[in-house]
Amino acid sequence: MGNSEDKKIVKLIPAYDSALAELIRENLKKSALDIPGTVYYDDNLNHLSDYYLADPQKRYYCIVLDEEDKLIGGIGLAECEFFENCCELQKLYLADSVKGSGFSYYLIAFIEHKASEMGYKKIYLETHDNLAAAIHVYEKCGYREIDRPKSVVHSGMTRFYIKELE
Predict the structure, then answer these.
(1) Which CATH superfamily hosts domain 4-164?
(2) How many Å apart are CA 111 and CA 123, to the nearest integer?
């Protein structure tokens, strides 16, 4: 995962909202996903801490550089109501400067552990064909592709995965 001594995982706080929204929008734009039906146009994207702090079944964690308190990535989870004992892995995004360093795997393992601690038995996620690197990571982490659930929120998503937690 690179040098983890200068990086830390912290819960999302309002001070990170604008940097997180910018990081997410940059990632989506580079993947041609700055389109309706993606998180790019979610009303709450500029204030994700409001969304994640309002409900104990929702969590979001940021990776920040200790020295500068600079946000370089994040991952979240929220209850998934259309599968039993299931949460949804949400908004895994990284700054370009740390992509390819193993952070995705680290964050996925981290959020799966949090999900298990919260009592979830499964974890679900939505992604898009344009995100080939992310799809590779999810499949390598044991997520299996499923048919599109009827209750999908982000209509622009094209790939759906689930994993049984240990």
Answers:
(1) Gcn5-related N-acetyltransferase (GNAT) (3.40.630.30)
(2) 10
Residue 13: count of CB within 10 angstroms of its CB? 12
Distance CA 61, CA 4 (A): 15
Kindly give, in sequence order, each residue whose CB lies less than 8 Å from that of residue 73, ignoring residues fewer than 6 positions away: 23, 62, 63, 92, 93, 94, 95, 98, 103, 107
Other Cβ atoms within 10 Å of 166 Cβ, number:
8
pTM over 0.85: yes
- List the chain domain ranges: 4-164
Average pLDDT rounded to a whole number, residues 104-112? 96
- DSSP 3-state assignment of 160? strand
